[in-house]
């Protein structure tokens, strides 16, 4: 009887751990699917950082959380029809962005751009000197010689893209909390399955050899 009671407790604990693990895993997947979206790079404007065909994830981001250097997924139908486009934030509302046609300064400071691809494809960029309007973002592609970005729309809000056009920000992976919940869920499922299997083995042994006196 004592062995049977132990087996029952092990099975119950195992089932509980599996159920709890499934809740964590499915909850993590659900949260990720609500706050993130997968995109496939279609154009060359962000090469070499994100080559054509690469699969990326973007996360929802509030306008006041956008920072210089962020890579954003935007939708601006009047510029790019209805196709979402990836571009990098160079300036935010109030920033003074200046270029001599090559190097860029923001608020008087040279912009460090180790990600740039300077291989020329189209005509050289013209110099510009703009003040980004509040509520707008000045965006450039990393593939500077092959990117149809803010430089070519200077007559429209100084080239700025409205913050409301942002669909998401490229992220390297799921947030730590979601990743941790998923990992804990998997561990719980495996641990619960192990307990259930151990209880089943003990029960099989008892059925085969009888409970000890």
From TrEMBL:
Subcellular location, record wording: Cell membrane; Membrane
Domain of life from the UniProt record: Bacteria
Stretches for region Disordered: 107-126
Catalytic activity, as annotated: Cleavage of hydrophobic, N-terminal signal or leader sequences from secreted and periplasmic proteins
GO CC field: plasma membrane
Enzyme Commission number(s): 3.4.21.89
Record field: transmembrane: 12-34, 176-197
Its membrane topology: Single-pass type II membrane protein
InterPro entries linked to this entry: LexA/Signal_pep-like_sf, Pept_S26A_signal_pept_1, Peptidase_S26
Annotated Peptidase S26 domain residues: 27-170
GO biological process terms held by the UniProt record: signal peptide processing
Keyword Amino-acid biosynthesis part of the UniProt annotation: no
Pfam name, any one: Peptidase_S26
Protein family according to the UniProt entry: Belongs to the peptidase S26 family.
Name of protein: Signal peptidase I
Organism, scientific name: Streptomyces venezuelae
Gene name of the record: lepB
């Amino acid at each position: 009887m004592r062995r049977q009671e132990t087996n029952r407790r092990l099975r119950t604990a195992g089932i509980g751990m599996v159920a709890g693990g499934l809740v964590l895993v499915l909850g993590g997947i659900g949260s990720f699917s609500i706050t993130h979206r997968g995109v496939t790079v279609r154009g060359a404007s962000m090469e070499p950082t994100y080559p054509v065909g690469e699969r990326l994830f973007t996360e929802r981001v509030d306008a006041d959380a956008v920072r210089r250097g962020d890579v954003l997924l935007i939708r601006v139908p009047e510029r790019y029809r209805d196709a979402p486009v990836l571009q990098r934030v160079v300036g935010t509302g109030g920033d003074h962005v200046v270029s001599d046609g090559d190097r860029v300064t923001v608020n008087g400071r040279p912009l460090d751009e180790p990600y740039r691809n300077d291989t020329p494809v189209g005509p050289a960029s013209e110099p510009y000197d703009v003040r980004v309007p509040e509520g707008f973002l000045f965006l450039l592609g990393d593939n500077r010689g092959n990117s149809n970005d803010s430089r070519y729309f200077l007559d429209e809000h100084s080239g700025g893209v409205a913050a409301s056009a942002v669909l998401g920000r490229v992220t390297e992976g799921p947030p730590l909390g979601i990743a941790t919940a998923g990992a804990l869920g998997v561990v719980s499922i495996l641990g619960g399955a192990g307990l259930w299997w151990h209880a089943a083995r003990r029960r099989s042994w008892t059925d085969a050899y009888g409970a000890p006196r």
